[in-house]
Amino acid sequence: MAIAGLKRSGVAVLLLLAAAVDGAEQPVVTPAQPATIAAPMATAAAAAAGLTMGDEYTVDVRRGDVKKSCGGKLVNANDKWLVLRSEVVRAEVTGVPLLMDLPLVGRLFRRQHDNRQVNDLWIPREAAMVTAHVPAVKPKAMTTVPGNEPPTPAICNAAFAMGGKLAGYVGTLSAVGADGVTLSDINNEHPQQLAQRDILCLETSQAYQQLTAGRASGAKRK
Prior knowledge:
Layout lengths: L1 H22 L20 H7 L5 E8 L2 E12 L3 E15 L14 E15 L3 E7 L19 E9 L2 E12 L3 E5 L7 E4 L3 E16 L4 E2 L2
Antiparallel strand pairs: 1-2, 1-5, 2-3, 3-4, 3-11, 4-10, 6-7, 6-10, 7-8, 8-9
């Protein structure tokens, strides 16, 4: 009888505790909020304070009512220019016709190159506004652009404002000055002056070739 009484008492205590827990005010759990990227910088001068070499940026460049959006990896920044870089890699196989396609031994008669084209966008800093920023996932050593001005001479694809519209010109960039640049046609003739106040971006390109596999050289494979 004593044991039965203790059991009944224990059950009663458990029921009272359960009722107390049910009646207590439960804490409100707020789901974790995803990390957000800081709002875009409003001006080029403010953006420069937070720029990180190697990070990806999207930049709007505006001259009056003419706007162009540019993107790439930041590889240079100074008082006059921001430089955003993009790269295109294309594999190319060359070798001795027929022999390069033989099973097992064909690799002895062919080689593979990675053709890498590097495009640098030189953007006037006073006309640029950062609209998006993606930090590098794995920061690593990188090649920056030397100098404070676009390289000359160089093949250049220029975007600029003319008559309230977006215009373009592909030619040789032969001179860069404080007030603008000089562009000539592909034959380096008929120079054209482009005022700094009209420039949206100047794109220069370089091509590199790297051997990745194989031993023998030959004609380009079609």
